[in-house]
Amino acid sequence: MALSFSAKLMRGVSRCAALVTPKTAPTSCRYFSSAENSRVLVNLNDKTGVATMQLNRPPVNSLNLEVLTDMTIALDKLQTEKDCRGMILTSSSPGIFCAGLDIMEMYNPQEDRLREFWRTLQELWKMMYGSRLATIAAINGHSPAGGCLLSLTCDYRIMAQGKFTIGLNETLLGIVAPFWFQDTMVNTVGHRETERALQLGLLYSGENALKVGLIDELVSPEKVMETAEGQMQMWLKIPDFARQLTKEQLRGPTVQKLAQHQEADIDHFVNFITKKAIQKSLEMYLNMLKQKKK
Ligand SMILES: CCCCCCCCCCCCC/C=C/C(=O)SCCNC(=O)CCNC(=O)[C@H](O)C(C)(C)COP(=O)(O)OP(=O)(O)OC[C@H]1O[C@@H](n2cnc3c(N)ncnc32)[C@H](O)[C@@H]1OP(=O)(O)O
User: Are strands 40-45 and 29-32 parallel, antiparallel or unpaired?
Assistant: First the structure.
């Protein structure tokens, strides 16, 4: 019998919830670690109540079904740790925060896996956007499409200076950012900027992202984590209850909107992605990525 998403999640939690403290770890730091969980590295500092989640899927941290599942399991586990109050999301590969969704999940897909992939992304987005934790994205490199979306689910974004770009560039691939990607962007930069950004598939430089409010701070690459930790202290000065209820009031309706249309959204996604013309666009984009290297 097929397991429901939450049943799979619970099964996953019990499988990878072991807290392992390596010999080198500071005593206040617990590492959530297992072989299955290594695509995301998670630790929780018991003294500060702040967890760090690092995307760890070289070379570009593209989000396939397994990474999305691991992130969902890890976040669920952190949220059930009563002393965990905040989370910093970053990447273990400086220079690349996240290349977005793994295009190979959408190119020549098997329908069952494609559905599961999209449902897992929806679940992760709902959990992140509505998380009881204070969340900060430490964007230490490129952050296109799904990478930008992930950072937008956080409460605050700090990006590294340099040649890196961020944005919802789906139209450049010949695909369309779904309504909940759009809603997240509108809630951050406003309707007019979202119209421009999403239709043109804009990838913003750090400076331009800061101008339009897509990120909150732009700092040198070596200062990204330190700035995130400092900013987190400010967020954690606010009583959790008041901060969480305020976030719920502001973001709850957006999360509810997807929850109410989740099945239809999966159907739209599958119908759209499996169209011949869309498959052709993805193929051309993949070829373009490969050509770029030559
Ligand atoms: C009625 C209306 C209905 C509407 C219904 C709507 C339905 C919904 C439609 C679908 C919505 C889908 C939403 C999609 C979201 C996404 O996230 S799509 C992914 C977008 N991502 C990108 O465009 C980024 C592409 N990558 C890059 O630009 C660069 O790789 C980089 C991140 C800037 C890093 O550059 P560099 O360090 O130079 O590395 P590369 O050499 O380019 O890449 C290394 C290898 O990795 C491969 N790769 C890169 N990105 C991806 C990816 N996202 N997925 C899979 N693979 C990727 C790249 O090809 C290289 O591979 P090799 O050549 O084999 O080494």
Answer: antiparallel
